[in-house]
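pinging the channel bc i need a second pair of eyes. not urgent but kinda urgent?? the chain im working w is below, pasted from the shared doc
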Amino acid sequence: MRLRLPPIIQLLRNSALEADKFLSIAWSPDERFLASGSDDKTIRLWDANSGRLLNTLENHESRVTSVAWSSDGLFLASGSYDCTIQLWDADSGKSLHTLKSHIGRVTSAAWSPDGRFLASGSADRTIRLWDAGRGNLLDTIEGHTDWVTSVAWSPDGRLLASGSGDGEIHIWEAGSGKLLRTLKGHKGGVWCVAWSPVGQFLASGSADKTICLWNADSAKPLFSLVGHTRSVMSVTWSPHGRFLASGSEDSRIRLWDAGSAKLLCTLEGHTDWVMSVAWSPKGRFLASGSGDGTIRIWDAGWRELLSTPEAQTVEVTSVGWSPTERFLASGSGDGAIRIWDAGSGKLLRTIKGHKGGVLCVAWSPVGQFLASGSEDTMIHLWDATRGELLQTLEGHVNDVLSAAWSYDGRFLASGSKDSNVRLWDVRNSELPLTIGSTREGHIGSVTSVAWSHDGLFLASGSDDKTIRLWEPESGNLLRILEGHKGGVWSVAWSPDGRFLASGSKDHRICLWDTVNGKMLRILEGHKGGVRSVAWSQDGRFLTSESMDSTIRIWDPITGAEHCAYRFPYTSYKLIHPTGLQRN
């Protein structure tokens, strides 16, 4: 696997103490500053852009093992081997409170998301909760049988996770201190824990050289990430939860795809333990602190990765399988279409021609041609093999959001933000048939279009919460299907043409009888908008993909859910032509 590695854009070093070990690093919420805790008992504040040292905070009597910013960026907390936590005014560097209660070294300190409370973990095997404003001790939580090495708040502030030298992760109810779940699976001490941005998943790094990804609700392990050759000291999620970075005693940083558990790349440069890694709040940078006396800031502009070995530095907005399933086309925010080998993940071709982001791509039935719709209001038809522009279809007056070929390849249907559906005879692009431009048409963006397999009917879904069925030959409206409570994002015909499935922003899938227009069934289970629906080739199963990071497979006859696949990040998922997901 080859990836374009992120370059180092800053190398921070304390010139007076080159051998100083950086044990902890943390970004300010606005990404302007970095705080570091080190072996020499100090906290340093750095300008992340220039690398200039701004301030040195001194009040601890031993090494500083943990630093953390409050969510508003006004305050810093630091934990130390002197058994105390210090609270600082980040602007002036003044010490505001010294929190004393632990009888062992403080290994970790973390702010609650609302900035009202602070949690600390210690070698005394306890977690302590503090009122950050007053500096008062609120609660002492006990349960681990060895050092508490790491504490982390869930994004909603309701739960606390703790890792320990006893090899266990505990999940606690923050308000009561009640132990809710124990996560077991590591074969060595747990040195670090981190919640995913959505709060459903947890990552842990261990002395057993692995990172584990857990379902925090069920306490079940999802993946074990293997690659480091020594203890994993730190883990951090990218802001959108798609990637993980890990730092290790082996002096390396490894970047992982959290959904597939694949190692994406290894960052080398440090010459001693990597004690801390931290993704910047906006995802633009990755920082790493090491025992070699340096902090490195890496450019993370490569973060928008298609789930392949190749890198894309722009947002992927649309994907589509070729009919043979050998190739994948992706449309991107940079106005380009990329063709990939689906088996190897190799980028085969980049096609450019649009003057705005590409919002939809569609292969012709035999795979010879590719259609793309864009923010520039144009539809381009391409020779998919050579990447040559064959035709430009003009007529829409706003973003082109969806496109679909008829099954004989003669016609193309397109839906737009201009509320219209247009039908194009690809042999005569100058004479499109516009449907929906009258009072019978949609009153919102047309987000999805789909042909029946016999080519006699066309369905369109819209932000106006309706599906409309059309006769393409005449452009006549046949039926309006109403029932969704949110915009319709996807429509798909059953192979025999008797039924239509629709996915919506309202989290539901609706099944319709296309003959009489009646709603047959509502499939409920998703907890986010349903972005895509697809039938299996034999019509026995229906697959749906949602913003809740799940893919669900349904029996369309009974409405029963067969199974659900969950992924520990929210991203664009591709439903395979057979109705099954493929990575």
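so The chain has two domains: 9-299, 359-566. and Residues 9-299 form a domain with the Methylamine Dehydrogenase; Chain H fold (CATH 2.130.10.10). — does that match what u expected or am i reading it wrong
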